[in-house]
Design goal:
alpha+beta, elongated, 360 residues
Length: 360
């Protein structure tokens, strides 16, 4: 039996233990409609590279900042892409796969693209010497694949079809169209019910195309002025590159790419199968054994000299994020209400007892 004099102490301990359980420790180039700035915000992409067939799957999960009600963006690819909807769940799976290890610690004191408003198009439209290779609705986008040999004709086509156009966009497109690349125009509509009308989150879209080496279209027109108008200062580009080994990214020899390897290592077969199912791809996609290289890049709002191309890295060491140490010591609650409750429950009986003694 607990002595009566110990009841307040036992009660305090019980309340604090309860409080502890309730309070645990805690590439695109933009071309917006006139007067409506648009810039690329954070981007996360998944690249699956099959060296044997020279096939790249480009899955993009992107966000934009814009004051326009709707806008489009242009994506260049070396060959005509196959466009399909891709699942969003794979991004969460990869994030979980490459997250830092949690360890217990002892108690202590402490793609290039261009954007613009667009109207519905007609397949086979050949105005301004621009061929429409395909038009389809996919993953919530109105997608149009274009082919042309002239940046002037591309700009004229954009103008004729309600897209914004500018000398900056023309300069951006010139090296692509002269090299025979295809341009995919994707129209995005903003969610009018969203609280933040300037942020736009696009659905994941998969583009599959042939290329001699894996790439990310890093070039874009000068968007620094639009970024300042929208208050966009920093953006993060995250690339999950899946291939047969660890890869590295290169911009130019004079201007190295600012992306860093955050994680690199082989992918278990069960994780490979899960990711392919989430991406709605056949289980035979890509190399038989996967190696994942995750890149993180603080992508500056400036004109890049080239696109990012990837090649096998001479360094094949595994890379992991630094471990996170979780303290094993109890954490006292920071909520003042918990202490106030403890005071009321403990001090009130004690005060009543003292009053009774005083009357006696």
């Amino acid at each position: 039996m607990i002595p009566r004099v110990c009841l307040p102490l036992v009660l305090v301990e019980s309340i604090l233990l309860a409080c502890l359980s309730l309070h645990p420790a805690e590439a695109c180039c933009t071309a917006p409609p006139q007067g409506k700035p648009v810039v690329n915000a954070d981007q996360t992409v998944i690249l699956i590279w099959d060296a044997a067939t020279k096939t790249q799957h480009f899955i993009r999960q992107a966000s934009f900042k814009s004051e326009a009600d709707d806008f489009g963006f242009l994506v260049p690819t070396p060959a005509q892409p196959v466009l399909e909807e891709s699942g969003n769940d794979a991004f969460g799976t990869l994030q979980k796969l490459t997250e830092p290890e949690k360890k217990k610690s002892p108690p202590s004191g402490g793609m290039g693209c261009g954007c613009g408003a667009a109207r519905n198009l007609s397949p086979g439209d050949t105005q301004s010497e621009v061929r429409v290779l395909e038009e389809k609705m996919v993953a919530g986008f109105n997608a149009v694949v274009l082919e042309t040999k002239s940046a002037d004709d591309l700009v004229a086509w954009l103008k004729d079809h309600g897209y914004a156009y500018s000398p900056e966009l023309q300069a951006w497109a010139k090296p692509y169209v002269e090299s025979g690349w295809k341009i995919t125009a994707l129209k995005v509509a903003k969610n009018q019910e969203a609280k933040d009308k300037t942020n736009v989150a696009a659905s994941a879209l998969r583009m599959t195309f042939q290329t001699d080496r894996p790439l990310f279209p890093y070039r874009e027109p000068d968007s620094n002025q639009s970024a300042e108008v929208l208050g966009a200062k920093n953006r993060l580009l995250r690339i999950y590159l899946i291939a047969d080994s660890r890869y590295k990214g290169e911009l130019t020899k004079e201007d190295p790419w600012t992306g860093n390897v955050a994680w690199a290592g082989p992918v278990k077969d069960e994780d490979r199968k899960q990711l392919l199912e989430q991406l709605k791809l056949p289980l035979t996609t890509g190399p038989k054994e996967w190696w994942l290289t995750e890149f993180e890049d603080i992508w500056p709002y400036r004109v890049a000299p080239a696109d990012v191309f990837f090649s096998r890295d001479a360094d094949q060491k595994r890379v992991r994020r630094p471990a996170i140490y979780v303290s094993t010591s109890p954490h006292w609650p920071t909520d003042g209400a918990a202490y106030a409750l403890a005071g009321v429950l403990v001090l009130t009986p004690l005060w009543n007892r003292l009053r009774r003694r005083h009357k006696v």
